[in-house]
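Appendix B. One record, verbatim.
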Amino acid sequence: MIQSTLRKFVFLSLSLGLLFTALPAYATTVSGTQNSDLTVFNSFEPSCVKVGETIVREFGVTNNTNKRQSVTLDLRATLNGQLYSIYPYYPREHWRIQLGPGETWQDGPTTFVIYDLVSQPKGTYAITLSATNKKGTSSATAQFEIYEATCSLGA
Protein backbone atom coordinates (compact mmCIF):
# COMPACT_ATOMS: atom_id res chain seq x y z
CA MET A 1 0.00 0.00 0.00
CA ILE A 2 2.74 2.47 0.96
CA GLN A 3 4.80 1.56 -2.13
CA SER A 4 1.76 2.00 -4.37
CA THR A 5 1.01 5.43 -2.87
CA LEU A 6 4.67 6.43 -3.16
CA ARG A 7 4.76 5.30 -6.83
CA LYS A 8 1.61 7.35 -7.56
CA PHE A 9 3.12 10.40 -5.83
CA VAL A 10 6.39 10.11 -7.81
CA PHE A 11 4.48 9.61 -11.07
CA LEU A 12 2.22 12.60 -10.36
CA SER A 13 5.21 14.79 -9.40
CA LEU A 14 7.09 13.89 -12.58
CA SER A 15 3.98 14.38 -14.70
CA LEU A 16 3.33 17.83 -13.25
CA GLY A 17 6.99 18.76 -13.72
CA LEU A 18 6.84 17.77 -17.39
CA LEU A 19 3.54 19.57 -17.86
CA PHE A 20 4.85 22.84 -16.49
CA THR A 21 8.07 22.64 -18.50
CA ALA A 22 6.08 21.98 -21.67
CA LEU A 23 3.97 25.11 -21.25
CA PRO A 24 6.24 28.15 -21.65
CA ALA A 25 4.87 31.28 -20.00
CA TYR A 26 8.09 33.21 -20.05
CA ALA A 27 8.24 36.93 -19.65
CA THR A 28 10.87 39.24 -21.03
CA THR A 29 11.67 41.87 -18.43
CA VAL A 30 14.81 43.97 -18.74
CA SER A 31 16.19 47.14 -17.24
CA GLY A 32 19.08 49.40 -18.07
CA THR A 33 21.06 51.98 -16.08
CA GLN A 34 23.84 52.86 -18.50
CA ASN A 35 23.34 56.47 -17.34
CA SER A 36 23.31 56.40 -13.52
CA ASP A 37 20.71 59.22 -13.47
CA LEU A 38 18.04 57.10 -15.19
CA THR A 39 16.83 53.50 -14.94
CA VAL A 40 14.70 52.22 -17.82
CA PHE A 41 12.53 49.10 -17.58
CA ASN A 42 10.73 47.23 -20.34
CA SER A 43 8.56 44.11 -20.12
CA PHE A 44 6.46 41.80 -22.31
CA GLU A 45 4.56 38.82 -20.94
CA PRO A 46 4.44 36.16 -22.18
CA SER A 47 7.40 36.25 -24.56
CA CYS A 48 5.69 33.80 -26.96
CA VAL A 49 2.17 34.38 -28.34
CA LYS A 50 -0.05 32.94 -31.08
CA VAL A 51 -3.01 34.43 -32.90
CA GLY A 52 -5.88 34.82 -30.44
CA GLU A 53 -3.62 35.13 -27.41
CA THR A 54 -2.86 38.26 -25.41
CA ILE A 55 0.39 39.94 -24.51
CA VAL A 56 0.93 42.46 -21.72
CA ARG A 57 3.50 45.22 -22.11
CA GLU A 58 4.82 47.69 -19.60
CA PHE A 59 7.71 50.16 -19.70
CA GLY A 60 9.00 53.21 -17.92
CA VAL A 61 11.87 55.24 -16.52
CA THR A 62 12.96 56.25 -13.01
CA ASN A 63 14.86 59.40 -12.09
CA ASN A 64 17.61 58.16 -9.74
CA THR A 65 18.71 61.67 -8.73
CA ASN A 66 17.55 64.19 -6.14
CA LYS A 67 17.00 66.82 -8.87
CA ARG A 68 14.26 67.39 -11.43
CA GLN A 69 15.20 65.91 -14.82
CA SER A 70 14.08 66.73 -18.36
CA VAL A 71 14.06 63.39 -20.19
CA THR A 72 13.61 62.51 -23.85
CA LEU A 73 12.06 59.09 -24.45
CA ASP A 74 12.54 57.14 -27.67
CA LEU A 75 10.64 53.97 -28.51
CA ARG A 76 11.98 51.84 -31.34
CA ALA A 77 10.77 48.51 -32.67
CA THR A 78 12.25 45.91 -34.98
CA LEU A 79 10.67 42.80 -36.46
CA ASN A 80 13.18 40.07 -37.32
CA GLY A 81 15.95 42.68 -37.18
CA GLN A 82 14.27 45.22 -39.50
CA LEU A 83 12.79 48.55 -38.31
CA TYR A 84 9.08 48.16 -37.68
CA SER A 85 6.41 50.85 -37.15
CA ILE A 86 4.78 50.65 -33.75
CA TYR A 87 1.85 52.80 -34.85
CA PRO A 88 -1.11 52.30 -34.10
CA TYR A 89 -0.06 50.10 -31.14
CA TYR A 90 1.72 53.03 -29.59
CA PRO A 91 1.06 56.53 -30.92
CA ARG A 92 4.47 58.11 -30.19
CA GLU A 93 8.06 57.23 -30.94
CA HIS A 94 9.72 60.31 -29.37
CA TRP A 95 8.53 62.55 -26.54
CA ARG A 96 9.76 64.60 -23.56
CA ILE A 97 8.77 64.24 -19.93
CA GLN A 98 9.73 65.93 -16.67
CA LEU A 99 10.61 63.71 -13.71
CA GLY A 100 10.87 64.90 -10.12
CA PRO A 101 13.51 63.52 -7.74
CA GLY A 102 13.07 59.73 -7.44
CA GLU A 103 9.95 59.83 -9.64
CA THR A 104 9.00 57.02 -12.02
CA TRP A 105 7.06 57.49 -15.25
CA GLN A 106 5.35 54.28 -16.31
CA ASP A 107 3.19 53.25 -19.24
CA GLY A 108 1.14 50.12 -18.69
CA PRO A 109 0.48 47.44 -18.03
CA THR A 110 -1.44 47.37 -21.31
CA THR A 111 -2.91 44.24 -22.86
CA PHE A 112 -2.93 43.55 -26.61
CA VAL A 113 -4.65 40.71 -28.42
CA ILE A 114 -2.84 39.19 -31.41
CA TYR A 115 -5.68 39.21 -33.98
CA ASP A 116 -4.07 37.95 -37.17
CA LEU A 117 -0.74 37.42 -38.91
CA VAL A 118 -1.43 40.10 -41.54
CA SER A 119 -1.59 43.17 -39.29
CA GLN A 120 0.77 41.56 -36.75
CA PRO A 121 3.23 39.41 -38.73
CA LYS A 122 4.85 36.42 -37.08
CA GLY A 123 8.45 36.80 -35.99
CA THR A 124 10.60 38.20 -33.20
CA TYR A 125 9.84 41.75 -32.11
CA ALA A 126 12.44 43.76 -30.18
CA ILE A 127 11.16 46.93 -28.51
CA THR A 128 13.74 49.37 -27.14
CA LEU A 129 12.91 52.20 -24.77
CA SER A 130 15.68 54.79 -24.39
CA ALA A 131 15.68 57.66 -21.89
CA THR A 132 18.12 60.52 -22.36
CA ASN A 133 18.99 63.51 -20.19
CA LYS A 134 21.95 65.91 -20.40
CA LYS A 135 24.23 63.29 -18.81
CA GLY A 136 23.50 60.49 -21.30
CA THR A 137 21.18 57.61 -22.18
CA SER A 138 19.83 54.48 -20.52
CA SER A 139 17.96 51.90 -22.56
CA ALA A 140 16.34 48.48 -22.29
CA THR A 141 15.27 46.12 -25.09
CA ALA A 142 12.59 43.49 -24.48
CA GLN A 143 11.59 40.83 -26.99
CA PHE A 144 8.52 38.79 -27.76
CA GLU A 145 7.65 36.42 -30.57
CA ILE A 146 4.44 35.89 -32.51
CA TYR A 147 4.60 32.32 -33.77
CA GLU A 148 2.51 29.64 -35.46
CA ALA A 149 4.07 26.31 -34.51
CA THR A 150 7.18 26.67 -32.32
CA CYS A 151 8.46 29.64 -30.35
CA SER A 152 12.22 30.13 -30.39
CA LEU A 153 12.31 32.55 -27.41
CA GLY A 154 12.54 31.20 -23.91
CA ALA A 155 12.96 27.65 -25.10
